[in-house]
Amino acid sequence: MRTLILIVCLLSTLETSAQPGKHPGKSLPTTLAVRTQLFDQEWVFLKDSVSGAEQPEYDDSGWRRLRLPHDWSIEDLPGQGSEAIVGPFSKTSVGATSTGYAVGGTGWYRKTFTLKSAYQAKNISIQFDGVYRNVDVWLNGHHLGYHAYGYTPFVFDLTPYLRPADQPNVLAVRVRNEGQNTRWYTGSGIYRHVWLTIAEPVHLAPWGIVITTPQVSSKAAQVQISTNVKNDQASAAQVTVQVSLQTSDGQFVKDIKKTVTLTDQAIVTQTLSIPQPTLWSVDTPYLYRATITIWQNNRKVDSLSSQFGIRTIHFDAQTGFTLNGRRILLKGGCVHHDNGPLGAVAIDRAEERKVELLKANGFNAVRSSHNPPSPAFLDACDRLGMLVIDEAFDMWERLKKPHDYHLDFDTWWERDLTAMIQRDRNHPSIILWSIGNEISERADSSGLVITKKMVSLVHKLDLTRPTTEAICSFWEHPGMQWDASAKAFALLDVGGYNYEWKHYESDHQQFPNRIMVGTETFAKEAFENWQQVEKHPYVIGDFVWTAMDYMGETAIGHSLMQPKSEKDSTTAVLPWPWFNAYCGDLDLIGTKKPQSYYRDVVWRNSPIQMAVHAPIPNGMKESVTNWGWPDEHQSWTWPGAEGKPLQVRVFTRSSRVQLLLNGHQIGDQTLPDSSIVAIFSVPYQPGTLEAVSLHNGQETGRVRLTTTSAAHHIRLTADRPTLKAGPDELAYISAEVVDAQENTVPTTETSLSFQVSGEGYLAAVGNGNPTDMASFQQPERKTYRGRCLAIIRPGETKGIIKVKASANGLQSAEITLVIH
């Protein structure tokens, strides 16, 4: 396998310095500090399939005004109060269990703006980072185009249809999220950012900067920048391309210039050397900055800055995956693109927090299942040091749902795969391109042809990273034997195995050079999977399904009580009121779940953890799905279970476990090398349950669970008490019901009311309960196992935001956020 070298990362370096005006259309300012600006402000919206809304004279005065990004599927539906409609959920949802009973439909967006005369000779375009889905765009009644896929970016040139200076221009966008088109919650609408670019006739092409580092050592790194420069003038133009490099703190490193003559466009390649580079890694995600400036007739006509990292990656079956020459085991998790209570809305801080949560819980890698993520998510992975498998598609020509992307695949796959790679190839966090997930036709003649085309395109666009595909044999092609997938694996650089870890060793015997990665695995098989990763260098990592809970695929992670006399349930999904998959290491609001504590021990991040199973009624047994986890918790508060035996599981890699209750030893077990779980049966009595791990007689770890007292008051904690003014910021306020000793009371499920005042507003509320259907937008939410979450979004003004939470019978709490 070839050595794969870093590319640079294009981060969110394009900041708006000018705000589009209020409807019906205020002029954009004449002078822009940057050539690309955020175009999220002052849109109007209607959820309806009206006709004629593409025409500029259409009366939209009654439409709702909003700021993008926006997801209408997370908003409360009309008809609240009926048994069939709760918050954003409807029993008649076409998506049903797949979308978590959320509703799609058709929606329209419109925006009115004017341009000053200084812009009349400019090249003006609009970029959408993500719209779900089937979107048509018009400017002043002219159809600019259509885009089918809900996850890839697209650009339209506005220039030919713009009106003269100071006359209103009307953008109209129709979004159709109709039918059964997905297996999970997608959201609906313009759920990612929109950008307006105002450029000279000579300008940088969209995603036209490619930065690689062909040679890297501790002494020097060679940085190669290829710039796609376009010329929309009728005549040739002589231009100078200047590249300047800076350190992360803005210190000048080096620059270089090259002069070329353009007819229509050209790729200009320049190479610089950075002495003693600081390498990008998961522990030290150091980023440089490259600024590319285009000069024409001694005048600066275009300029863009891009942060990038320097690192090397290498894959082979003998040494595994190495980053900067050091073997890294991929501690991975799969995530969908939603942001919990916010729905699909891709606010920058929400995307960043998701990565922070994963890092804090031991993950060093993430798979974007099963579609390209937002730019903000990848930016966060670059800044925080999270490795990424960037995935393109969930299906190809064969359907998984009647109205899904298979209808568009033949027409759109090449454009969408190209857009993903061109947009994302400068991110140092990305180490693998995935061309598909559980593709039915993967090993058929038609699928092999598609695979060859896709792999060829990926390698044409990016020679520095390998391709993979997530392959399974359970459900995407019933009856196909596992060995039949060998033809598909042979076309890939790295073989993705979904739930197939038992084939690792036998496949290695047949294909000793095949590199393998667990692209999806069950949480309850984490130990077995990780043993394979640690034992075999050709198995480079393990990606659990999933790292975080998500809406849709309802209840695939459930545990179910049923009579002992019955066969174990084989039901994968459960109906209303389930809306959440509930299979994540973290719940919908980011709270750590029991399986995550187990994984801490599996990954050797913790010496010992303990979980207590909820009481099982007499005559009943527990049935747990493949993606599920037993109904156990980090709790020793079980009122009503006094004297009844509770199962206690202690997780440790040490050889011996002692269990104590209220200071008295009640258990002592020696673990075999093949297990990290000690199981005890303990009659419940309130107090303190304590587990101690030992190895060769020496204590290696200790964990305690203490019975809580009665609920006393509310405690509010902000993830960040100080934040910047602006719509891309959020504060996550954890609201917990605690006893007088400040312990969270896990048995409390009570409604908390939130009041927000000052320079911000309540963006969403939520909890981790997968069956608690309720509004995500009203200022009230029940606690689940003692806690819920409020998400606060600041405005544009400096000041303070006060958040107060109250509930019947509890002391209220208030917290102040500072906005600067």
From TrEMBL:
GO terms for biological process: carbohydrate metabolic process. The keyword Hydrolase applies. Residues 714-816 form the Glycoside hydrolase family domain. Residues 211-311 form the Glycoside hydrolase family 2 immunoglobulin-like beta-sandwich domain. Residues 103-196 form the Glycosyl hydrolases family 2 sugar binding domain. Residues 320-553 form the Glycoside hydrolase family 2 catalytic domain. This is Glycoside hydrolase family 2. Signal peptide: none annotated. It comes from the Bacteria. GO terms for molecular function: hydrolase activity, hydrolyzing O-glycosyl compounds. Belongs to the glycosyl hydrolase 2 family. It comes from Spirosoma pollinicola. Residues 643-700 form the DUF4982 domain. Pfam families: DUF4982, Glyco_hydro2_C5, Glyco_hydro_2, Glyco_hydro_2_C, Glyco_hydro_2_N. Keywords: Glycosidase, Hydrolase.
